[in-house]
Model the fold of this input.
Amino acid sequence: MSRAAPETKRDRVFPITLILISGVVIVATFQIQTLGMPGNHDPGPRALPWFLAGLLMLGGLYKLAAALLKKPVPAAPQQTQEPRAEPAQVRNTLILLGSLILYFAAMPWVGFFISTLCFSIAMMRLLGTGWILSAVASLAMLMTVHLLFVQLFKVQLPAGVLMFPF
Done:
């Protein structure tokens, strides 16, 4: 009798978790109250959570099917020592966590656009992207977010206490 490798069991846990979370989201959206006139063909506030939960469920089902159809691999011999993280990995992780904390702390003061610009440039630099490409990609992302959310959807993004005009 062949035993499945531990990776196979782990490959099943994640998709099952995704499926369960999507089910909880779908059930929880029934608590969302709908306003407005019935029959106006407005999908209402439940549509986006249902759509995203449906995508999450489809992804979980796909990963679960892939894990179930995967051929069992003989278990590798046990390692005596768990592999350690490289110092560069630890440093990058700490930089990421520190940047996230600074990003969320700075947003109420300098606003969404400046804090997001600084955070995205810092993350791209951490990943090894050059300064110019990091700045151009970050500005393009912010322009897209501005067009979509501020102009199209009329969502007010945090301006910050300093009230920068962008």
